[in-house]
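STRUCTURE:
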């Protein structure tokens, strides 16, 4: 599935590197024939050809979820217009199940918080054009220790999730038996293959065994880092860690730097715009973590920026990368479909500063004219820019542009 950019994008090593990173060439990263066969199944099932988008309960609610919260959140996705922009998954995290399996060894929704059952919840979500996600664990207990894990119950649980109508599984990594992560995660991958339902499989082993190197054989996304928190320091740390693995991502298999904190309240609007811009450029899953039932208009303008979302959902599927950074001033960029380039100038320092990206940074000849559009101001900056782009960027803020090169 090798992709090609047109001639004016093949002028520099950077673009060639992006290409290698995007397609994750089988010969270059040592994928066995067995893995290739599994990848073909997962990639061909139609799931997550672009990064998944939706909402997850953990960041805001922790264990305080119930069916009313989930149903009202599904309604909010629709009423705010976010669902129409691609936010489709409504994902339960930990604590949704009873503390023990039933007499037949099956998981069951917690009667006190999900009295209608998970199947009824899935029906409610599906009726609104959305999809239901659920949480499980590759150990004996989940991370809260309040419900059973799926270790040695993989096929049984996969079949149960399919019967309920689940569309997404986040698979965590607590209370396991000490065996390798890869062994336990591939067991669930094989179980999901057997049930034949198109479920997005999200591996959450926190990047411990470099899952980017192997998880694309068995799932659609994998956590590359530990958990995010609602601070700018966490966002920058995680972005840098996730950046390392860009060459393994592509359509149907995505690096996951964890959920969005936009709207959670711990950062400034500039910091949240930077967070959303970099996650979109990196083709990360866009899973909202705040309470959508009381979200502010300012937060909705960030989460609902259609142009930035289109970068994340671009059909080329190339993870944007950090090209250079010095003293907290960084240039991040990546190719898009139709010969375009997305560029983020990110100021992680404490002072306003000028940041410059030069055409050679992303494989363009200095003489190539380009149309430049600012995706946060929603306007064209130039219709004939050449050689470089410079902007004054506030502390912890960013500028996000898309360049459309013209024929010289």
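SEQUENCE:
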């Amino acid at each position: 599935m090798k992709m090609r950019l047109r001639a004016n994008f093949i002028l520099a090593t950077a673009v060639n590197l992006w290409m290698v990173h995007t397609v994750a060439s089988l010969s270059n990263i040592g994928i066995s024939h067995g893995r290739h066969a599994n990848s073909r199944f997962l990639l061909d099932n139609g799931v997550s050809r672009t990064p998944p988008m939706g909402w997850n309960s953990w960041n805001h609610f922790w264990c305080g979820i119930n069916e009313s919260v989930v149903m009202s959140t599904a309604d909010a996705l629709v009423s705010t217009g976010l669902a129409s922009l691609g936010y489709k998954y409504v994902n339960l995290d930990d604590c949704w199940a009873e503390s023990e399996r039933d007499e037949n060894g099956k998981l069951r929704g917690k009667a006190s918080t999900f009295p209608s059952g998970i199947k009824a919840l899935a029906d409610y979500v599906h009726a609104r054009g959305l999809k239901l996600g659920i949480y499980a664990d590759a150990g004996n207990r989940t991370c809260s220790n309040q419900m059973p894990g799926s270790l040695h119950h993989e096929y049984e649980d996969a079949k149960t999730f399919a019967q309920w109508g689940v569309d997404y599984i986040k698979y965590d990594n607590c209370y396991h038996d000490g065996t390798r992560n890869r062994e336990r995660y591939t067991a669930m991958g094989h179980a999901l293959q057997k049930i034949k339902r198109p479920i997005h499989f999200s591996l959450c082993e926190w990047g411990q065994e470099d899952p980017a190197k192997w998880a694309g054989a068995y799932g659609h996304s994998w956590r590359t880092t530990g958990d995010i928190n609602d601070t700018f320091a966490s966002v920058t740390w995680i972005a840098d860690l996730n950046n390392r693995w860009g060459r393994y991502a592509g359509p149907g298999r995505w690096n996951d730097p964890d959920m969005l904190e936009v709207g959670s309240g711990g950062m400034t609007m500039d910091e949240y715009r930077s967070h959303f811009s970099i996650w979109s450029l990196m083709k990360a899953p866009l899973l909202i973590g705040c309470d959508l039932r009381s979200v502010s208009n300012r937060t909705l303008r960030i989460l609902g920026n259609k142009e930035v979302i289109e970068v994340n959902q671009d059909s080329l599927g190339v993870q944007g990368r950090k090209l250079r950074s010095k003293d907290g001033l960084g240039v991040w960029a990546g190719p898009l479909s139709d010969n375009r380039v997305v560029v983020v100038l990110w100021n992680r320092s404490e002072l306003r500063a000028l940041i410059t990206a030069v055409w050679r940074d992303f494989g363009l000849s200095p003489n190539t004219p380009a149309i430049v559009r600012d995706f946060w101001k929603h306007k064209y900056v130039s219709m004939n820019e050449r050689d470089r782009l410079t902007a004054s960027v506030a502390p912890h803020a960013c500028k996000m542009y898309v360049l459309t090169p013209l024929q010289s």
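REMARK: Confidence is low (pLDDT under 50) at residues 1-41.
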